[in-house]
Design a protein that fits this description.
five-stranded antiparallel β-sheet; about 15% strand
Amino acid sequence: MDGAPQIPVGDTLIWRAYGQVVKRLLLGPNDPKEGLDYVYVCPPTEHGLRGGRPIPDAVTNANVYSVADSLQRADSPLFTMHTDLSYFESLDNYLKAVTVKTITQEQKAEIKQAIKEQMEAEEQRNIAKASALAAWKNDPDAQANHRTFQDWAIDNADSYLELEEQVVLASGQVDLLQSKYYGALAGTLREKKEKLEKLAADTKNSNPGYNMPCFIRDYAIDEAALDADRRVEDIDGRDLVYQPLYTIDGYESSCDSWIKGTAGDGTIVTLDLTSNRYDDWKELGHSESISRRANKFFFFFSKSSSTSTAETHLNFNGSDWKQQTKITLYMAGPTQVFNITPGLWDDSGVRRTFPNLLEGETDTALGLVRVSKILVGYEVSLKIRFAESLKTQVRNMVSQAQSESNGGLRIFGFQFGPDQASGTSFTRDVNSVKYNETTNEMSLPASPRGCPVILGILGRKIGA
């Protein structure tokens, strides 16, 4: 986030108006508890959460994990994935750093050194694992023959397996020293750590209640299965990777209702651009001094390219654009709110059980915000009527993007055409953007069937 540009006032105001809608749909007439709860906005199609009978459970699980495990900053209302610490890793790190009774400085130093060596081993292992996973995913023979990652690694990733063994040895040394110096309380601590490190973090084996099977590669939704409401579980077990469990009660049945069109009446919301202040996010639990540094998705309207990172952003200078611009979101069926629940590995009261840390250690997750609820919409589309003062910019950006072989547009998180390292959940043909120059109106097609999208997040601050 440090190198990200600051979002201009006009773009920030649009997100603030969108935040007002998200907050109402998430909480109704209620407000976030000050200093505890925080509302975050998501670009309407950046984070897809595929689900329902026609979607394999492992595909849904992978999407859920990516969202639920991403901790957020309290000073930024714009939700991002994998930008700050993982919640699972933060809990693991905290348990490594706690002290359970008074011991000598020499004993503390011995434990601290062992922990340092374990964390260094884990860091090296994680780097090697990420590299090995990428190579496994891109190995055509491995995928064609459905070789599991662990089996493939035996022949192709010796360095990763060696580092994995070093982590096991380093972890055992930490357990040994803590048991030696802390006694009975060390058993409680060790039990909690084992739930995380040996059950939830086990990527190879199923440990019900602690981890879940995930399919982390691209998956093409079967349109015929959507039409027939047919259950699909077509992923070979050898292609799965297990990750820490998070659950969303009722999500599959809700997705089925959306897909079948039986969820209820559609949703239409229009953003209020005139009554909100771009710099006041207190209604969403944040302060007035929020950070507006974020990734490029939070520019409202951008022309992009597949051959360059340079972008052109719509400039909202002028006094009339707020009154004359109208932004309306359309959704098939009602939006729905779901609770996110971690598996049996979680211990939300760990800071009360073990309030003291080893000398020199810090609680890296303290003050960050964990995901507790998500707001989800289905087949989200967008219609924009631009102010007259924006007409020339919009016309030029659309015509240039549609006339260039490598041109693309990103509008409120919707990606059309190619974009270098876009990262969006979906991309569409840039020519599917419909712009009427006479009326200065633009229509964007709906997000794909079978893939509901996250509109907003409610989070709770850790340690508050």
